[in-house]
Structure formats: structure tokens, C-alpha cells
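[step 3/7] fold_predict: job queued, chain A
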Amino acid sequence: MYFTIQFKSRHNKQEYQFCQVANVKGYGDIVTVYHIINEDACDNTDPLNEFDYAVFSACLSYFDKGDSCISLGIIYRAMTGKTTEGGKRKVPPEIREDILLSLKKLIGTVIEIDDAQVNSAFDYAKSGSKKCSSILPAHFDEILINGNDATIVFFDRISPLMEIAKQRKQILSYSPALLDSPNVRNSFMNIMLKKYVIRRVAEIKLHKNMRKIITFADVSRDKKSDARNVILKFVEHLQNEKLIKSFTVEKKGAASRGISFTR
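[step 4/7] structure written:
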């Protein structure tokens, strides 16, 4: 179970709005108002990114299954698709530190949501239109398991983003095993790229009116060539796994613009 929430970077207490539906009779544009607030322990010079999204999705997926706590190893395997018995390997030290940093960011980032207008217009909820909570309501402790130290994440309650996504049926589902691409190493960057691509593919498959293309426009300039190669290998893997039928590389002049595919 994975979620379609889009993270946006904002400095403390700056407001932004998300238009749910435009030009609704009697309402005009239906908007949800958000504030993203960084707690003191969370450095807002390091905004939430696709890696954080991958950690967040893993946590919410296990919460939704009924688990009250999970280990860093479980999070790592959910992020990389190595969920079978043979794939239950230890978290690489550098990725372990990245996961811990991501958890601190997610726990330390507070979201205020005012969705009274959309709830009223579409009867999503009779109450609870205003929420204020950590994006990931959780804490983690290092405890001793079978004589070894292990970091365990304990979930305190449902995430407000998960609550809204379930209420509005804005949830994407796919097998995490699809993230286990044999030709893509699970580095920090590659985990982000795989997460972005599979989410976009799942969104496009679900929404038939969306353009069936994934562009390279958001990939950083200094690693654009490497990122393109990773994306191509991963999309080939998704084709082999029958998630998509076929794909082609779109070009603008001599430059590669993105990947279009058939469902």
C-alpha cells in the first residue's frame, strides 16, 4: 500500500494551497490549505525529498498492515524490494544513516491542514476538517534484540496524510518486489529514482487521462546522464515484470526528453 501525497518544501509557517477541483458550482475553486512547519530539531535547509518519500511510504504501508513498530531493516527492504527470505540482508551503513536522518525529518516536520471547504463540498468528513500533526507521528529507540542493538520505529498514531488519502481513496498499490531491479544498485540516488518512476507509472496507469510520459526535467544537472541510465534500466525491469507493455525514449532535438510507455 503506497500513497500519492506530494511533499513540498516551505520555510516555517508559509502557507500554500492545493486546488482539488476548479470551478465547482456554488463554491468556485475547491482548495485545501496547508502549512508546513519545521520543528527546531528539523533543519529546513534540507527539504523533504524522494528518499524521504520512500521511507514515509514504507512506514505507512506497515502501519496500514497493523504493525505497531518496524525495524530499519524492514524499512530498507520495503524501499528496495528485497522483501523475500533470500533478500533479507542488513542495511548498508551509509543507507542506515540516510534512513535515520529521513526519520528525524519526517517526525520533526509538522503539517497543518485546513480542508473544511473540500470536506463540505464532497462530504468527505463530518468533522476533523482542521488537523495539526507530525507528518510521521512516531518515535524510535535503540533496543537489544537477541544480543544485538537494533533501532526500532514505534508508530504513535495514523499520519494525517494517510488519513486523508484513505478517506479520499487517493492510494496507489503495487508490489514492493517491483523495486528490486537486478541491474540497479541501491544507492541513495537510485532509491529516489526508482521510487519516483514507479509512483509515476502507477499514477499514469490509474488515471487514464494522464500523459503516459516520464520526463527527465527534474533530474539534477550534475548527475543527469547517470540518472537517465538508471531510469532506463529500471523501466526495462518494469517491462520485464509486465507492469508496462513497452516504452520508448522521447527526444527533443538530439537530447533525450523522457520516456513514454504503453500500459
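[step 5/7] annotate
Residues 1-12 have pLDDT under 50 and may be disordered.
Residues 116 and 128 are 8 Å apart (CA to CA).
exit 0
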